[in-house]
Amino acid sequence: MGTVAQLPLSLQNLVVENVAIEECTLRPSITGQQQYGNNRPFCDFTVPNRTVCFRGIDTKRWQTGGAKLNQTKQLILCDWPTRTFDPLILTKLVPQLERFALTGRTLQRLVHHFPPLSKLRELNITGTRLNHTDANTFYELEQLKVLNLRGNELEQIQQYRFLSDHVNIYLQGNTWNCTNDMIWLLRERSEQYVDKSSWVCKDWKYTGRPVVTAMEYKRVVQESCQHEEIWNCTCHVSYLRLSDNGLSFHPMIMVNCSDRGFYQLPQYLPGNTTVLDIARNKLQLVDSLTTNEHYQTVQDIYLDDNQITSIDILEDTIWLDHFRILSLRGNKLNRIRVYSVEHAMERNPGVGKLYLSNNPWRCGCRFAIRFQRFLRKHESLVADTRNITCYFINDDDGRKQYLPVLTLTPNDICRASEHNTAAFYNTLSIIFASLIVLIFTKLGYDYYRYRKYGKLPWLIMKMP
Question: What is the pTM assigned to this prediction?
Fold first, then answer.
């Protein structure tokens, strides 16, 4: 991934050039407005063969307009008034068309592909809300040399097909959604997309990132995902984080290996993998989180519905001190070292969520009480606290009985002997704590008397 970070970057919303069609910045003549009304279509024919129309085309007036309109070679449609435009009307109205321009913020869709206009060389659709074209939209324009689609609302395009040998395509200023796959832009044939280096992503995930850079990262990640360890997993770039120096990006990669039949954590992950979903497999161990360098960057891991029986190996590890999401729902955990997990969560400033429900937690007297205290203390971080239950064996019928951990009491789970023992130790702890406080208080008092009056404690005076 290191070579990708050296790609040229631009985070500025570049000024979109050549969106405004010069002819459309001129106001219709006063005579024309008076003749056809302010809101009706109006066309102005100028010598030798150019026609500029505002607010659409009145086809009836056009067809009765004489030979001069039919000989139009340059047609500019300004302020197009409807959401759709049908290119097929061009064959009937302007069969000699060489240059065509269309603009207007109301336009959203082309009804048909462009028909075979044998002389059309330049096509401009700019400054509209056009949001879709397909590979064959301009295919039949055999003489086309320039296709200008700047400043529209295209989110994704397929590689265009043309009958003509070479077309210069301009697409700057569209609202590119870089979660879509446009990796084909990196191929040699895409050189006809002249301004692709200035395309900028507009979606929430990649906003402000150059489209080509985003696609380059996606290509590298797809290739990395072909590794034999994870060939049946899927990988994608979930976010491109700008480096501190502003000169490169750090990709955040998500790998999805759920429902793939894994018996152990894969030994390979693409560099910069931050999220791993490996739910619904047959994992029993999580030791790779502490021993495999590929897991150093993994912050979110979803281990739901596996066969994990213990996470004790994570105790006092760097990974546990830096995780963000750890999901262990639906495994075979019956106990954890509560103090270890709690200390890790207190040391970890970036901890987000921990999921522990749907495990066969055992309602041992001491463990259950500690577990309950932990859940109550960290209820905001243990997202499924209210769904966590533990079980004990009913003495009467030998069946498992489940209780919500948050609401259980010692009487629910502790036998009389266990309860008395726990109560004894609690009382003893209180006594020892009180004695320690008294001893320190007495020491402080004796020190004060000695410093102020020079008197030693009574016990010291009586000692031989």
Answer: 0.71
| Relative orientation angle of helices 365-377 and 416-453, to the nearest 10 degrees | 60
pLDDT digits (tens, 9 = 90+) for 152-164: 999 999 999 999 8
Please say whether the beta carbons of 267 and 233 come within 8 A.
no
pLDDT tens, 285-324?
999 999 999 999 999 999 999 999 999 999 989 999 999 9
Query: Which tokens sit at 28?
Result: 């219709």
* CA 195 vs CA 150, 165, 186, 198, 219: distances in Å: 10, 19, 13, 6, 20
Does residue 96 contact residue 120 with C-beta atoms inside 8 Å? no
pLDDT surpasses 80 at 346 = yes
Residue 324 lies in a domain: no
CATH number at residue 56: 3.80.10.10
Q: Provide the pLDDT confidence category of residue 275 given band limits of 50, 70 and 90.
A: very high
- Consecutive H or E run containing 99: strand 99-104
What is the domain count for the chain?
A: 1
> What's the Cα-to-Cα distance from 176 to each of 133, 173, 226, rounded to whole Å?
13, 8, 27
Distance between CA atoms of 12 and 76, rounded to whole angstroms? 31
Which pLDDT does position 5 carry in this prediction?
38
